[in-house]
Design brief:
globular, mainly alpha, 2 domains, two-stranded antiparallel sheet
């Protein structure tokens, strides 16, 4: 009994130590992402996503890279774009980009397992999109794509993040409380969607880190030709991701433990790619697009994830960029010391608190989705001698069409975008 309690205590301790290792990186990444979301206009980009070919896919990739890393937000926005005429290739490119080419993911990977993985993730994300675009018609016919679009148009429009930035110069934004309020609200809303995923990721990493190396030796093929081992690892990586139910940035701590435990470079990259095919997200695809389309795009994504991971592994092998040394558990779960991380983490706490304080001073909560919005810019409605504020027309309409006596049960996420 004592041994079990010790193991549980060590699991929680290691989860905290890993969070300590990357706290400043998380705050920095989400702050940069919030600035991009608030200050980079999207209207023209969204209008350019219709049709097929290189240009709309490239624009969708750029838009995704400028978005939140939240997997649930990515699929909700992609569905909205698909409803409005974006091609299946563009919608999927947006999803891949927003979950693989965003800055916060790259920073956390760099801190935990090295810059080589960050570079591989970014290159691999582009390879992933290219392969998906080439293979799309092998899995999804034009007829099936249009059927899926009709299915998506019949579903509710759903809630999604909005671009809160105003038309200002960079200098004006840097000195404007209103512009920084936009940033703060994006920052808070992103955290509100992914904090559970991140927490679960750290806890899983902390407890899986207590497993002996023999567990990982049984999980991965070790005594086999190099090619077979490489392929097996690239296949098992996404399967582990699906079974773990963890997505977004929460995947990275577990990836660090898997890398320490012996999975190949390709296996780590494939594992990180697979956050778009975890079971809860597949169920949302089914609701958005129907059974047949969902099965086809999930199969397409799995194949492209494995293929992209193998290609990146081959490129990095030729370039000599695959790390030879693996971190030990002590490296991953380092101790709290008086070093640069102490001061950067304190700065991270200060930035985090400042943004949240700004949303508390200027913000109100949308009663429908629970999102924090700037009171001065939100849509408003007076009802029963009380003023309510909304982030979007969708939430305002939902409030208007829902019986008033049910509103005490909110906030909760819309049926189309479960809380992350």
């Amino acid at each position: 009994m004592t041994g079990v309690l010790t193991t549980i205590g060590d699991g929680f301790k290691d989860a905290f130590l890993m969070a300590w290792e990357v706290w400043w990186a998380l705050v920095l990444g989400f702050a940069i992402s919030a600035i991009v979301q608030a200050w980079v206009p999207r209207e023209r980009i969204q209008n350019a996503l219709g049709g097929s070919g290189f240009r709309p896919v490239a624009v969708a990739t750029a838009l995704g890279a400028a978005s939140s890393s939240c997997s649930y937000a990515a699929i909700a926005i992609a569905k909205s774009l698909f409803q409005k005429g974006a091609s299946a290739a563009s919608a999927l490119a947006f999803q891949f980009s927003s979950t693989n080419l965003v800055v916060e993911l790259g920073i956390v990977m760099w801190v935990l397992i090295g810059w080589q993985f960050t570079l591989a993730e970014f290159i691999g994300g582009l390879v992933l999109i290219a392969i998906m675009t080439v293979l799309l018609r092998l899995f999804v016919s034009k007829r099936l794509e249009e059927q899926a679009r009709e299915h998506a148009q019949e579903a509710d429009s759903g809630h999604q993040h909005h671009s809160a930035g105003e038309h200002m110069t960079i200098r004006q934004r840097l000195t404007s409380a209103s512009a920084w309020s936009d940033v703060a609200h994006n920052f808070r809303n992103d955290w509100s969607m992914v904090w559970k995923e991140i927490l679960i990721g750290f806890l899983l990493a902390g407890f899986i880190g207590q497993l002996p190396n023999s567990f990982f030796n049984a999980l991965f093929i070790t005594e086999a030709p190099a090619g077979l081992k490489l392929i097996e690892n690239a296949i098992i990586g996404p399967i582990i991701a699906v079974l773990s139910f963890v997505c977004s940035v929460g995947n990275v701590p577990l990836a660090a433990v898997l890398w320490s435990g012996g999975i190949s470079f390709a296996g780590v990259i494939a594992f990180i790619f697979a956050d778009l095919i975890v079971v809860p997200i597949v169920l949302i695809y089914r609701k958005y697009y129907g059974d047949t389309y969902t099965k086809r795009i999930v199969a397409l994504m799995f194949v492209t994830m494995v293929a992209a991971a193998l290609i990146v592994d081959g490129l990095f092998s030729v370039a000599g960029l695959i790390p030879q040394a693996r971190p030990t558990r002590a490296d991953i779960f380092s101790q709290v010391k008086i070093d640069y991380k102490l001061f950067t983490n304190i700065l991270g706490v200060a930035v985090f608190a400042a943004f949240f304080a700004l949303t508390m001073r200027r913000g109100v909560t949308d009663p429908v989705c629970g999102m924090k919005v700037d009171k001065a810019k939100a849509l408003r409605m007076d009802f029963a001698d009380e003023t309510f504020y909304f982030c979007s027309e969708h939430c305002l309409h939902a409030f208007e069409t829902t019986p008033p006596n049910t509103w005490g049960k909110w906030p909760l996420a819309s049926a189309d975008q479960p809380a992350d």
